[in-house]
Amino acid sequence: MENLFENQDIIDINIEDSVKASYLDYSMSVIIGRALPDAKDGLKPVHRRILYAMHDLNISSKSAYKKSARIVGDVIGKYHPHGDTSVYDALVRMAQDFSMRAPLVDGQGNFGSIDGDNAAAMRYTEARMTKISEEVLRDIDKDTVNFVANYDDTMKEPAVLPTRVPTLLLNGSEGIAVGMATKIPPHNLSELLDAVLHVIDNPSATADELMEFIQGPDFPIGGTIFGRRGIIDAYNTGRGRVRIRAKHHIETRGKKEIIVLDELPYQVNKSRLIELIANLAKDKQIEGISEVRDESDREGIRVVIELKKDAMSEIVLNNLYKSTPMETTFGIILLAVHNKEPKVFTLPQLLNVFLSHRKTVIIRRTIFDLEKAKARAHILEGLKIAVDNIDEVVKIIRASSNDQEAKDSLMSRFDLSIIQAQAILDMRLGRLTGLNIEKLEAEYQELLALIAELEAILKSEEKLNEIIREELTDIKDRFSTNRRTEIEDSYDEIDIEDLIPNEPMVVTITHNGYVKRVPIKSYEKQRRGGKGKVAVTTHDDDFIEKFFVSNTHDTLMFITNMGQLYWLKVYRIPEGSRTAKGKAVVNLINLRPEEKIMAIIPTPDFDESKSLAFFTRNGIVKRTNLSEFSNIRSNGVRAIVLDDLDEIVTAKITDVETQFLMIFTSLGQCIRFEVDKTREQGRSTRGVRGIKFKHDTDFVVDADAITNEEQELLTVSEKGIGKRTQVEEYRCTNRAGSGVISMKLSGKTGNVIGEVLVDDTQDLMLLTSIGKMIRVDMNTIRKAGRNTSGVIIVNVDKDDKVVSIAKCPKEDEEIEVDENGNVIRYNEDGEIIESIDLESGESTTPSNEVKKENDTPSLIDNLEENKDEEE
């Protein structure tokens, strides 16, 4: 045992180096030999071997179908060193018209479905090549591509196929290798060929130029690509993300709407989608769906989503896009193998690789045909000599004792090659008739013309390009189909503001989140001095909460409870008549399912002199310069960093006129401090303490930005108790203190639910927990001291309570446009309550005599008053 290795060389190898080398060998084997397609023919090795095996078996598009098991057996027996399952799965996918834009296999039998059904076993299905796959293999027998040894070095297989079709982009490809992946979407053949024809004349064409021909991916089952930015990125850099949505139409049945899905996003399983929608509807995660059923047939996809009577299709669709694969994202990675090296390509690079491959194939085919023609011409030259000297040739042959002697004699006498001499010996005497002699001469002249033409092709780049043009045009004429996938422009990616006139609009927002805009000119169609109501058709449980005049280029900022800020240009709001209901805001901005809008703020600009103040439930306040929100994004931006279990309560704009910030809590505390006590912070910050709670159960319910101490605040509690109190009664303190009492609470009042700045030109709207809505004229609410309970504003039932309050335009409020183009607002008595200058946006209110406090009507007397100030 000791001398076992005595005469052998022992080499020390570091195990790390050994493992590294082995892993590199394995990874390159996976990259080159299995997972990634070749940039030239667009095929992975398994697909290439399947097509070549079918070519070898002569299973063309015109031949009879052959058992899939026979094809798979040939592939794994001759070329593919892996299991039969992987080969059959690849063959099945090549036959699925919902997976491949142009199927390369014509399958007969069960080859699976878009519902995720598996194909039948290979012993039950049959297959043959399609016509387009024959174009992928055309001229393979003319030495157009290199052949390499198969896995056991007993046969040869093509390293790449001489395709006439840009298969890589036509059918796309997906694969995960070691440390890299490819995901190439399918495209439209006609668009691809037009782009290649353009590249022939413009080799340095850019991706933007090529996009004049190639609109974008074209998926087998259609769908809609939403936005072009991802396509542009992918074609210019090789990487991009596109959003794909299901294509639908709306049908009506009585008063109910029905959503019908006609096309699905690429690779979405239809049956699983239907099951998911049904479960979401059953669990009440998506409201408004009464039934989902599949009515698809041979004609195409038809998924029916029946809605409940009062459901709105746009809201349901918006929720479906967010919660189901009715909207998916396709991450494009244009990665392929070129010259045994994986590389991420741009669109121009891929088309140039295909074009270069075609040139190489045609040159090699031309050389092959030229050599074949020259060889035949060489034989014909010998035969001509024999015919011209037939008597002497016969004499030499008869005088020879064997074939070799006859060949040597002919070669010596007529200066022939061995090939020519053999051809003369093999010639039948029947060829010596006059007709056949003429055929030999004609064939020889045709060969001379062909040789001249082939040599001209090899010498001329223009002739080579002309052949490519003819071949590609022929492919386009025979195989082109219409585009199936539509591409919609996304407003987030297109600057269309310059195309839209900056006109004044009346914008209304209802409490339930319906928004619309009406052009000011709609109010100019009346006779001078006439008045028109600010009207809107709302649901019984809805009302106009905000009404303002804004230009089409102005921006609405939506702040949600999760601290996210979204933008919406006024021109993006659907224009409607004065009686139109409007459109739900959730259909206009990309809210997440759990988000709730807490504040809507209009702004004509993002001036640095303004700030946006945020107030949270846990008493945090943060002020951020408005200019930090000027970079509009479709998915919004993070406006504040929230603590766990904290959320935004409201937000207010502050400007040079803002003096104070006020915060109100559920247990009747209020703090007023100067706005400068909160310095401006960036977006990705938490903010500072605004108020300190006296009780752990307390929380912020509302806040406001105050311009002067003469303003009045209306505070309302759960039991419908409220009061008007002047701002100056709330002692100004430092930030982060406990503040003072804003309302004296008792069992008869309940907790505070909110406050509003008093505006005698507007009404107060109260909403209770059971859905009751009460409109109250603010003038009917009596003024009271700070440390009081107030008066009954509305009687609520024992088990009911007020849950929210809001200001709204007076029910009988009317507006007109005067001769100066200003918007004039009137009350029901015809008195001017506001004038809005459309150029500056400034609002002026006529000064009225201040009413005496005891002249202000009240509903009932104060429940109780307490004049003591809290120290």
From TrEMBL:
Region called Disordered, residue ranges: 834-871
Biased composition (Acidic residues): 862-871
Subcellular location field: Cytoplasm
tRNA processing in keyword set: no
A biological process from GO: DNA topological change
InterPro entries: GyrA (IPR005743), GyrA/parC_rep (IPR006691), Gyrase/topoIV_suA_C (IPR035516), Topo_IIA-like_dom_sf (IPR013760), Topo_IIA_A/C_ab (IPR013758), Topo_IIA_A_a_sf (IPR013757), Topo_IIA_dom_A (IPR002205), Type_II_DNA_Topoisomerases (IPR050220)
Active site feature: Y124
Function: A type II topoisomerase that negatively supercoils closed circular double-stranded (ds) DNA in an ATP-dependent manner to modulate DNA topology and maintain chromosomes in an underwound state. Negative supercoiling favors strand separation, and DNA replication, transcription, recombination and repair, all of which involve strand separation. Also able to catalyze the interconversion of other topological isomers of dsDNA rings, including catenanes and knotted rings. Type II topoisomerases break and join 2 DNA strands simultaneously in an ATP-dependent manner.
Note: Few gyrases are as efficient as E.coli at forming negative supercoils. Not all organisms have 2 type II topoisomerases; in organisms with a single type II topoisomerase this enzyme also has to decatenate newly replicated chromosomes.
Subunit structure: Heterotetramer composed of ParC and ParE. Heterotetramer, composed of two GyrA and two GyrB chains. In the heterotetramer, GyrA contains the active site tyrosine that forms a transient covalent intermediate with DNA, while GyrB binds cofactors and catalyzes ATP hydrolysis.
Listed name of the protein: DNA gyrase subunit A
Lineage: Bacteria, Pseudomonadati, Campylobacterota, Epsilonproteobacteria, Campylobacterales
